[in-house]
Amino acid sequence: MKVAVAGGTGVVGSLTVRIARERGHEAVALSRRTGVDLVTGSGLDLTGVDAVIDASGGTTVSAKASREFFRAVTEHLFAAEKRAGVRHHVALSIVGAAAHPHGYYAGKALQEELVAAGPVPGTILRATQFFEFALQNAVRIGSIALLPRMRSQPVAAASVAGELVSLAEAGPGAAPGVTELAGPRAVRMAELLREIRDFRGESGRVIEFPLPGRFGRTLASGGLLPGPAARRDPVTLAAWLLRA
Length: 244
Ligand SMILES: NC(=O)c1ccc[n+]([C@@H]2O[C@H](COP(=O)([O-])OP(=O)(O)OC[C@H]3O[C@@H](n4cnc5c(N)ncnc54)[C@H](OP(=O)(O)O)[C@@H]3O)[C@@H](O)[C@H]2O)c1
Fold this sequence. Notes:
The protein has eight helices and twelve strands. It is an alpha/beta fold. Strands 2-1-3-4-5-9-12 form a seven-stranded parallel beta sheet, with helices on both faces. A three-stranded mixed beta sheet has the order 6-7-11.
């Protein structure tokens, strides 16, 4: 199978490219670093591709900017998929985003809607935050790390990447339209970062601060925690730390 990974140079996208190749597939990364701008559509050519995995993402907390990003990316991918005869579109979303479409999650909720109604058969995987999230999102001032107040049930990005490849391998319609994957344990993001720093022998305080508005309240109140239907990935923080 030939698979194109949108955002294939990012945290989960690069793992997805690697795992697809390890499983014997041809995998290409689509991102600005590989000459493809998914917001404008420039450089996007899916000739010969069987399945697209969309693991692209932005960094905005603005609902408007997030909706604009995911609308543009999804519409450009679908147009290119139709032209090239791609059979399956697998999109990575976030547990809780559709139920709490505020800030960045407004774009993820729109992405889910567009994929569900898209012109190419689609499958959505919702994942909780990655263990890597605490490192990606901490603001560092000297030895101090600042993180938003947030409860999550983090999962290893490699497990999410493996699941994305499995969904692409299974083909359209083989899995339910939307599935959820979470890690084994709920934790505050600041606590997660403290555990990572302790393991690495890094000193310095981790301070959590509340983000304003409904977006911030969703993060702090556990709105992103998985429901009972989510699959629990067995990879623990301890196992992830030993591998990372
Ligand atoms: N991080 C988490 O904890 C988490 C959890 C669940 C779901 N997700 C979702 O998973 C996706 C990926 O997350 P991540 O943490 O792996 O993100 P990331 O590391 O920031 O990677 C984002 C990717 O998107 C690409 N990209 C950004 N703008 C682009 C553009 N205009 N055109 C083409 N490519 C573009 C980036 O490459 P270039 O910069 O080279 O363009 C990069 O490859 C996001 O949709 C996110 O919402 C993330």
